[in-house]
Amino acid sequence: MALRARALYDFRSENPGEISLREHEVLSLCSEQDIEGWLEGVNSRGDRGLFPASYVQVIRAPAAEPPPPARYANVPVGGFEPLPPPAAFKPAAQQPPPEPYPPPPAGYPFPPYGGSYQPSQGSDDDWDDDWDDSSTVADEPGALGSSYPDYEAAGGGASGRYRLSTRSEPSLGPRGAGHPPGHPHPPGGGGAAKSSATVSRNLNRFSTFVKSGGEAFVLGEASGFVKDGDKLCVVLGPRGPEWQENPYPFQCSIEDPTKQTKFKGMKSYIAYKLVPSHTGQQVHRRYKHFDWLYGRLAEKFPVISVPHLPEKQATGRFEEDFISKRRKGLAWWMDHMCSHPVLAQCDAFQHFLTCPSTDEKAWKQGKRKAEKDEMVGANFFLTISVPTGPGASLDLQEVESQVDGFKAFTKKMDESALQLNHTANEFARKQVTGFKKEYQKVGHSFKCLSQAFELDQQAFSAGLNQAIAFTAEAYDAIGDLFADQPRQDLDPVMDLLALYQGHLANFPDIIHVQKGALTKVKESKRHVEEGKMELQKAEGIQERCNIISFATLAEINHFHKIRVRDFKSQMQHFLQQQILFFQKVTQKLEEALHKYDSV
């Protein structure tokens, strides 16, 4: 017996996988079992998908055609409490076996399950030494704050803990009420319908907005204790929202990469010496320690662009050129970490910089504490403190315009950076191979001419022969100058471009979180206008969206500020090196020219 249902109200689809309904329309149901208030079926236009169960009435009459298979019978809905089966639910033996949730399409930008960063592991980054522990739960007392007391004092002391929650208003998404999560109750429900209207959840549970915890925070489902030291303050600056400056700015140098061994020489690795300016105490870190830190920071800060590390290399990792290039990349990475007001003060980063290399116990305690951090996901947004009072509110349309403008900017910058990187790389290759070869070919030709002239034994021609031979040597030296020059000017430019390409790759996810929050605000406003949601509930959603918007705009402003600083400095360095290079070339030519004065 086929199942059919009649639509009681109009319904307009808003998300992928939903279908629209018209009042009195007859639909074919795939299954009578609803999934958190949703049914799957086929409408009269042949569209197949999900729709609210409360918008239809099941028609218990036989039909000629069997129902299509229930593709969505096993769709996981994150964070929802399971519903008891309806009275008409058939025994499991009579139900067709549900198909697994379809995998994301090829090229999908997010991992299939879980939103946390997975550090890459390679031959030079094994975790099989005394500094590591597979456990991720710390029972020992914290070791992070004690290693850097100044920051704790600056934040008012880490002892103050405040319970923050976004659950102060009635639940935004009542479960088990028989109504679809994310759509209003049918019209005509009076006050009860208004108080129980909800803002929809994204059907795509793999989106960055969902995985970052942004959706749960905006919908009022985050709660936790926030210490004074965990607070991240956004202030209003001359360019708009900005992260509050670090009261104790510092830098950290990366020097003297050395090859070390363990297991009696059976395993080798490169250790880098770090010297933070605020402690003056050197520590040694391997690349895998950088990799672990990056993973923790990328997971903790969904609206902050954590700079990418230099790429790994499976072979040739002990070659001098590779070690030098990696050290320069790590130096850029460290500069951006120390320059960021939030990242520089993060407990995990301070532990990485200050924990003595020989103190195994302190390292493990700090590592475990960072991995146990509860202020991640939706709770991370509880730590953000934004301006309040007159003139501190954000206009949503203006925010959306600024974010859209920045999105267009990053797209154009990414294209330009790729083009410049390709051009610089090609030009450097020509200098190292082509230009050197051509100049040395000219020098060789001059040398052949000089050797031919030496066959003339007349005394008055000896000076000319020597001058031409010197000219040949000058062109040979100029060829060497061309081959060495990219190390001085083009390579630093390409290193900077590589760092910023990592930042540009981060911002689509950051923007997606902010856009998702704006979408929830617009939906709540529409519910209020239709009289289906209380104003207080919608205002709570907008307040939480403002927090995400403040943080996003603060990160955008920091990006522009640091970008201007970096590219100004790098372009100055590039042109200075170009001038020095051509001065060296000119000097070689002038020396050759003066040889002819005595001929």
Summarize the structure.
The protein is of the alpha+beta class. It is built from 12 helices and 13 strands. Among the domains are: 4-59, SH3 Domains (SH3 type barrels, Roll); 243-374, PX Domain (2-Layer Sandwich); 396-595, Arfaptin homology (AH) domain/BAR domain (Substrate Binding Domain Of Dnak, Chain:A, Domain 2, Up-down Bundle).
Task: Describe the overall structure.
It holds the Pfam family PX. There is one protein chain. By secondary structure, the chain is an alpha+beta fold. Among the domains are: 4-59, SH3 Domains (SH3 type barrels, Roll); 243-374, PX Domain (2-Layer Sandwich), CATH 3.30.1520; 396-595, Substrate Binding Domain Of Dnak, Chain:A, Domain 2, CATH 1.20.1270.60. It contains 12 helices and 13 strands. It has helices at 149-154, 190-195, 208-211, 214-218, 287-300, 320-339, 347-354, 360-372, 396-453, 462-484, 490-529, 535-594, and strands at residues 4-7, 26-29, 38-42, 48-52, 56-59, 161-165, 223-227, 232-237, 240-243, 252-262, 267-276, 283-286, 384-385. The strands form 4 sheets. It has a 5-stranded antiparallel sheet, with no helix packed on it. A 3-stranded mixed sheet has the order 9-8-13. Strand 3 and strand 4 (48-52) form a beta hairpin. The longest helix has 60 residues, at 535-594. 34% of the residues are buried.
